[in-house]
Specification:
Strand content: 25-35%
Strand order of the largest sheet: 1-19-21-22-18-14-17
Number of helices: 9
Mean pLDDT: 90
Distance between the termini: 28 Å
Largest sheet: 7 strands, mixed
Length: 440
């Protein structure tokens, strides 16, 4: 949630990338923790350590289908001189009452079944005749087909050391151990561990709900016919997908026409399901920049503390940006430029960290590295602007993809990195070391 209105410095102030990001992260706060069922908690962040209440496994059990025996009874066993043991019954997984294995006896045991009292080790069924008296077998016959397999005698053709093929109680985790630390993102393996130790619910910060909407009367939905002067709306799809990739529950709103009242009504309708709102388009200085028109004076109509500040950033692409809060809950809103590359780069730099902050993560940024520039010619960059160029990264080298144009969607689709050219650098020669933001 937003805890305060963002600072404003006048329309002529040129913000740096770092200032704008700092303002966002100083305003956005992690969502309040809630208790969720395990599957509902997938992708969420733990807010407390989880302690193991019961050891895993909770008892000694067999890691093989075979026979539970005493070590002395199979010592020296071979195919020429097999150990012949009396089979006293079956031990299946989940069985409550266990057999006792005495001297000269064996219990047929299934994978995961408790090691019965008296038994010291497990002989795999492949080391026996399976009770059939016809030499080594490759497996057990189903009990339903051969109930007599749990009776009679079994020939064992190899010795086994003590506790061979036995999973010891607590060999995975012991009661009292810390299973998961606060701050852990719950993926499938973590969900499995929580279920295995008997936790049906867990306390987490919920995945933030992000509403994405694009603006522009020229925008048409995919699969519809294009009219004169129209283009397909790609931004809302890209940013919704990016929000989900960042860990959010994202809702895409169809493109809103260039009408300030319609946009304000749409935003108001969507606030009920938003922890964060993202708009794209309409933030520059044109006569039809509807987001700026609709939200520049929202603080006059909203509760005290809300408001959207529209800024110019010393970056390329993505110079025009908007940030603030809106509505009775002071929901954070980031207004991004409308060119496809500008909006996506802005998302990676500003929206993704905001989403990760709402989730309660400590590390909210994409990883960065240094790489050797592989290019046919020097890269140029406008003075005083931090430029972000698309590129492909591999084996410590990065290669530019496409040009600097903020409309080049095809080039963006082939990029997995952003090449960062600092504000005080106007040219980067091939072979130079550059900073790279890794997107994959």
């Amino acid at each position: 949630m937003s805890s305060a209105a963002p600072r404003t410095t006048g329309q002529d102030h040129l913000w740096s990338v770092d200032e704008h990001l700092e303002d966002i992260l100083a305003t956005v706060r992690p969502l309040e923790p809630i208790e969720l069922q395990l599957l509902d908690a997938q992708g969420c962040v733990l807010v407390e350590d989880v302690t193991v209440p019961v050891s895993l496994p909770p008892f000694d059990n067999s890691s093989m289908d075979g026979y539970a025996v005493r070590v002395a009874d199979v010592a020296g066993a071979s195919e020429e001189f097999p150990a012949v043991l009396d089979v006293v019954g079956d031990v299946a997984a989940g069985q409550a009452e266990l057999l006792h294995v005495g001297p000269g006896q064996a219990a047929r045991i299934m994978t995961g079944a408790p090691l019965p009292p008296g038994a010291e080790t497990v002989v795999p069924v492949e080391w026996t005749d399976g009770g059939l008296g016809e030499g080594p077998v490759t497996g057990m016959r189903a009990r339903a087909l051969a109930p007599e397999g749990a009776e009679g005698h079994v020939h064992v053709y190899r010795p086994a050391e003590a506790r061979a093929h036995v999973r010891a109680k607590g060999s995975d985790v012991k009661a009292g151990d810390r299973a998961l630390e606060a701050g852990t993102v719950l993926g499938p393996p973590q969900i499995a561990l929580l279920a295995a130790i008997g936790r049906g619910t867990v306390r987490v910060r919920p995945r933030p709900r992000v509403v994405v909407m694009s603006t522009g009367s020229e925008l048409v939905q995919p699969d519809e016919d294009l009219g004169s002067g129209q283009i397909y709306d790609s931004n809302s799809f890209a940013l919704t997908a990016a929000a989900r990739d960042a860990g959010a529950i994202a809702y895409r709103v169809g493109a809103v026409a260039d009408d300030a009242e319609t946009l304000r009504d749409t935003i108001e309708d969507q606030l009920v399901r938003a922890d964060l709102m993202v708009t794209t388009g309409g933030v520059s200085v044109g006569a039809y920049d509807v987001v700026k028109e609709a939200l520049s004076h929202v603080a006059d109509e909203d509760e005290a503390g809300s408001g959207i500040d529209f800024r110019k950033l010393a970056m390329q692409p993505g110079k025009p940006q908007g940030f603030g809060s809106i509505g009775p809950d002071h929901t954070p809103l980031l207004a991004l430029p409308g060119n496809p590359v500008s909006s996506y780069v802005s998302f990676e730099l500003f929206v993704r960290p905001a989403i990760r902050t709402l989730m309660g993560l400590d590390d909210v940024h994409r990883p960065r590295t240094r790489a050797k520039l592989t290019a046919g010619k020097a890269l140029t960059s406008p003075k005083g602007r931090r430029q972000f160029l698309r590129g492909t990264y591999a084996d410590g080298a990065v290669t530019p993809v496409g040009g600097a144009g903020s409309h080049l969607v095809a080039a963006l689709a082939h990029a997995d990195a952003l090449i960062v050219v600092p504000e005080d650098v106007e040219s980067v020669e091939p072979g130079a070391e550059v900073e790279v933001v890794l997107l994959g």
